[in-house]
Amino acid sequence: MSIRLALAGNPNCGKTTMFNDLTGATQYVGNWPGVTVEKKEGKFKGDKEVLITDLPGIYSLSPYTLEEVVARDYLVNEKPQAIMNLVDASNIERNLYLTTQLLEMGIPVVIALNMMDIVKKRGDVIDVKKLSQELGVPVVETAAIKGEGTRELVETAKKAAKAAKAPAVHGFGGSIENAVTEIEKLIADVTEPAQRRWFAVKLFERDSKVQARFTLGKDVQDKIEKLITAVEEELDDDAESIITDARYQYIGKLVKDCVKKKKTGLSTSDKIDHIVTNRILALPIFALIMWLVYYVSVSTAGGIFTDWANDGVFGDGWHLFTIGAADYEEATAEYDDQITRRDAWLEAADEAGIDTSALTEQLDAEEPDETAIADAAAAIEADPAAASVVGTAEFEDEDSGEVTTEDVDLATFEETMTAAEPDPADFGVWVPGIPVLLEKLFASMGVNKDGWVYSLVMDGIVAGVGAVLGFVPQMLILFFFLAILEDCGYMARVAFIMDRIFRKFGLSGKSFIPMLIGSGCGVPAVMASRTIEQERDRRMTIMTTCFVPCGAKLPIIAMFAGAFFGGSGTIAFSAYVLGVLSIIISGIMLKKFKIFTGDPAPFVMELPSYHVPTAGNVFRSMWERGSSFIKKAGTVILLSTIFMWFTLGYGWEGGAFCAVSDIDNSIMARIGSVIAPIFTLPGFGTWKSTVAAISGLVAKENVVATFGQLYHFVGEVAEDGSEIWGELAADFTQVGAYAFMAFNLLCAPCFAAMGAIKREMNNGKWTAFAIGYMCAYAYVVSTIIYQIGGLITGELTFGVGTVVAIAFIALIIFLLFRKPAKADSTEGLRRMSVDAN
Ligand SMILES: Nc1nc2c(ncn2[C@@H]2O[C@H](COP(=O)(O)OP(=O)(O)OP(=O)(O)O)[C@@H](O)[C@H]2O)c(=O)[nH]1
Ligand SMILES: [Mg+2]
């Protein structure tokens, strides 16, 4: 017989850390409340018969948020055999509030005093024996992060489960206790003895979900109501607060008896918070940190790795551990100088009336003929006029920009003709790139270079999936930094800082948590909106969260930053700012509509204490996010690239369906051309960019993959990433590129995220509205960027587009500043009857 144990406790007390330790799972752990929003089940490593469920963190068993409902429904309906109640011992008073409720549920409880490492470090002392005696349940000291006491906890819980003895109920005393006992009697017929106490207390609190659970007769209902009102009148408070007070009084006494706190001044955590949550400095500090993160991940370290991945692994090849790279570079520079001298002399010779065309033609040829070159050169050298020709070669110093000139005579020219282009493979340890290896493999297998197999692999898969995988290093670095910021506790502060700003336009700082998760992936981000109590704020958060660039959008940003802005980290950072600004602007605009008006709920997120991020957590989080990206590359993106390869490579030419020689005749080109005109205003009305943007709906990485394929088809030789960037740069201007990037970042997210939106909205109309809003907003913003930006840079002249852009700006300003609609009474204030499924 298997034993089912549940992990319950306050948010951020370490339940998931414990769960991972016990089951070997790799569930997401973050240092802020509200990480887990759905229950997760796993088998205990030490005993496969023990099933452990990780529940979302909750402060109480009231029915106001989705997590509370998820956790509570599980405990009431599925009745685990024992509850392992994790208590953050460093914050024991508040954590015990939930404990007092759990003890009433009629399920055996074992308390785990977690975070004991922090308590000990602080010098506080908790009398565990006494606590256990007063509460009437076993208490185990643990430090989940170090795996201390966790096994003992399970063993104790197993014993408690086998004994199946409900904890002794602690009385509220006085008239409250009398009323609750009376209610217990009234519902004796419809409840099991074990759960009776809990239901009675909930009915006393007028919990609507519990009320709805029973079909009590009118007279019973009246009797209960009478009991409640009597107590309310006596104590001059509402029933719910009466119970809360009673619980805290009990806890106050308990803590006085069992906990000895060491008196200390400001803790380090408080001192840091003084600075990072400072009214004036908080935002600049946050902006600086995020800029640094993007700068390092996209420009410097990330850039180096991405160049390596794009040009090396998915290009010609690379020098292992950069051995020989410097020598190769030197040799290449020398070779380039020789070419400059050669061309300078040839130019002078041409001016002197010597026919150099035969040679230059050969030198520029796609596949130059060695002997033809030698013959042509010999012919030129034999010309009597050649001896007196002197060319002038110009060299620019890369660092100083200083230009030096050098005379080139016939002898030097002859020398340049013998110079051979250095082969990187001759220097150090050369590792050929994947395309080169595949080419060799195909050659050895005798695969036809013009056949479809070769084309599918090289033009389709390598060009598409390779273009995406090239960005993995950058993403891993970004995820690494984000994981550190999350785990140390800083991100929870940012939610607090953001609350001050968000409140001004009607959202609470709670909406920041989904945004934060959204920087990794939109799917969990949309799900994280569950921590928001108010339905309208929750909907608004779902609608705007995907504006934050998720990991999959990073390659798009990195590609455009690389191709158009010299790999600028500032551009990458600006994409992040654009996302946050869009949330703020949308917040203000939407709040003016009747369905969204009203004040946000007060922000009551507790700030976790800072701690040094654990390597395990950081790397797990980095790997979890990164690997899902790699998995996607191997599945969805692979399939899409194959689809794209087919629709780009085949079409109608000369009246027949065949493999096309001109990509403009492909199936995709035809489809794209039909849709493309829509995107003329935002400046990317070509079928290629249209197709790329649409392919992003499947997965955002596809935008890059599709560009990889589109431009790969154009060239004849295998091209590396940066050559694609060159081609790309020829097709867009900087302004156009930025507008296109903005559109892709802001428009409807990928299918997976759209699915999450549909699940969380649980309503077709709202889903359509959310996705429609994102697309419309993206279109408006990219049009403004392109039209107005183009006007400023002089690319565009004043025309219809400008007028439309100005109209768009006027519309946004109107929506931002118009008078808000009046709120509908209290409708939507609290999500009392949410359905957790
Ligand atoms: N010092 C210390 N930190 C811990 C301990 N257990 C967990 N943590 C840290 O506390 C933070 C929260 O851990 P989680 O496991 O995500 O907490 P949770 O209870 O699942 O949180 P929610 O899912 O939000 O309810 C993480 O940063 C952990 O590394 C512990 O015993 N000692
Ligand atoms: Mg958790």
From TrEMBL:
Record-linked InterPro entries: Fe2_transport_prot_B_C, FeoB_Cyto, FeoB_GTPase, G_FEOB_dom, Gate_dom, P-loop_NTPase
Entries under Gene3D superfamilies matching the protein: 1.10.287.1770, P-loop containing nucleotide triphosphate hydrolases
Domain (FeoB-type G) ranges: 2-163
Lipid bilayer topology: Multi-pass membrane protein
Localization terms from the record: Cell inner membrane
Keywords: Cell inner membrane, Cell membrane, GTP-binding, Ion transport, Iron, Iron transport, Membrane, Nucleotide-binding, Transmembrane, Transmembrane helix, Transport
Segments traversing the membrane: 280-298, 452-485, 505-528, 540-565, 571-590, 629-648, 735-757, 769-792, 798-817
Keyword Ion transport: yes
GO annotation, cellular component aspect: plasma membrane
Pfam families: FeoB_C, FeoB_Cyto, FeoB_N, Gate
Single annotated GO MF: ferrous iron transmembrane transporter activity
PROSITE patterns: G_FEOB
Name of the protein in question: Fe(2+) transporter FeoB
Organism: Agathobaculum butyriciproducens
